[in-house]
Here is the input.
Amino acid sequence: MLGANINTVGWLACREIDIMKQKGWDKNTISAALHNLSSSGNTENTKETSVTGSTTGFHVYAVNWTPEKIEFSVDGMVFYSYNPTVKTNENWPYTAPQFLILNLAMAGSLGGDIPADFTESKLEIDYVRISHQKTS
Here is the structure.
């Protein structure tokens, strides 16, 4: 997810929440990450978890984002919680709307080079559900 204000403040200041990433060469490991001014690029705000059968069956990848913390889960099991003790503009810019991006990215520093014998891939999404609860 990217901050809706990306066109006015730029990528890093707008913040990014990666609900699920998967390296092409490591199909049973997924990760979640948060990019902000305190941790960008090769972020330290990330965690990986093992998901057996990640490409052979559907799984529920979720983020629960509250004013206090951001939790990431797979199939209902939380594997990463981001909750800075002292929240600043640099480490907690997650106070404004974001938009959702669903993509299949090829190559790059996370996934590595595309093998010479690669012919195709696919990204299958069963559903997307967004729930917003206003907190007082």
About this structure: The two ends are 24 Å apart (CA to CA). The chain has two helices and eight strands.
